[in-house]
Structure formats: C-alpha cells, structure tokens
Amino acid sequence: MSVTAPAQVPLAQAELLERVQHVDLPTLGHLLEEGFVDPAIRRLGQPRRLAGTAATLALDAPDATAVNRALVALRPGEVLVVDMRGDHTHAPIGAVTVAAARARGAAGILVDGVVTDVDALTDPHSGLPVHARGSSCLTTKRLDGEGGRHQVPVDIGGVRVTSGDIVLGDANGVIALPPAALAAVVHQAELSDAAEPELLARIRAGEDLRTLLHLG
What we know:
The chain is an alpha/beta fold. It is built from eight helices and twelve strands.
C-alpha cells in the first residue's frame, strides 16, 4: 500500500516574520534572485531593521490627502509602501506622516520616490525605518484625496509589491516578496548565518582559502 507524504504545513506569517527579522539580508541574496528593490532606494530613517507586511499606495498625483487616508488605514506591523508613479520630486512622507504611521503601529515606510524632514526621520522618539530614493523640500499638497489607490499592486524599484507581501530592509537594501517565497528559504538562510562566524574565524586563522572557499 502506498503512503502519501503529509503536506508541508506553511509557516504562519507571524512566525515567518519573527524568523526573517534575524536573518542577514545579504544571506537571502545568496539564495534568491527575485524581490530585490533597486539599490538607489536606501535607508533614510531610523537605523534599525525594517520588517513587516506591505500596505500599498499607488499615488497618481501629489495628493497628501490620499497619503493621510492610507496612514489612517494602517494596522500594527504593516509597512506603508508608496509608489510615486515616477514622481521623484514631490515628497509624500515627512515628520508628521512618520509620526502618524508610528502612532498606528506601523513597522516602517518604503517610498519609490523622495521624502522630507530627514533629520526628524531618525529621531528615536518619533522616527521609523524609512527607505526612499532621496530627499526633497517639495512636498505633496492637500488635494481632494482622489489621487491615490490603496491596497493595489505597485511597482517599487523594479519589484512588484502586493498588499500582504513581506518587506525587509536594512543598510544594505530592501527585499519585498510574498511570504511563500521567503518561507521556502528561511531555514537554509538560518543555517548559513549560523555557520558564518566559524568560517570567518577559520579565514582569520589562516586556513587554506582554496578549501574554505570551495575551490578545490
């Protein structure tokens, strides 16, 4: 009689998020090819790990009211992901919007565009991890609120991001992927990170690099 192997139980999202927060992001770069946001998008906010689930906003006009509506809708642990639709001059995010996101329990903000109030974004009392292309003094305006589409697929630095995707960021860059893609490699990444300190120690001790680097 043949026996069917039990189906693999997917990692719960909360468990997956907890685990990937402790994985070095470049380790994921050894294991994956997709999900890596354009390196021109870099960390400008509080210097800590960005990790959460995406809440997306496609901003079709420089409409601050649409941004504010997306902020009010944020849930704890979410990352506000803003697609500026090619507008890299108007900043949708600054000190007030970051404080509002933090008040909603957000995990951070990712903008394919520019931000403002850069000094305030690093404030440990009101800042959050914020990743963007740069900074500007020109900001969005209080329009009619119809210039944005919330919780739709967006393009961020060459990566398609959908609401509920996992967003990770640090000083090295940003990764955005569906939970299943990260769940498939998280254990291998943990093993790799656990082995790295010993490998570095052996290199520093002068062991044969050809052996350590698997060259023969």
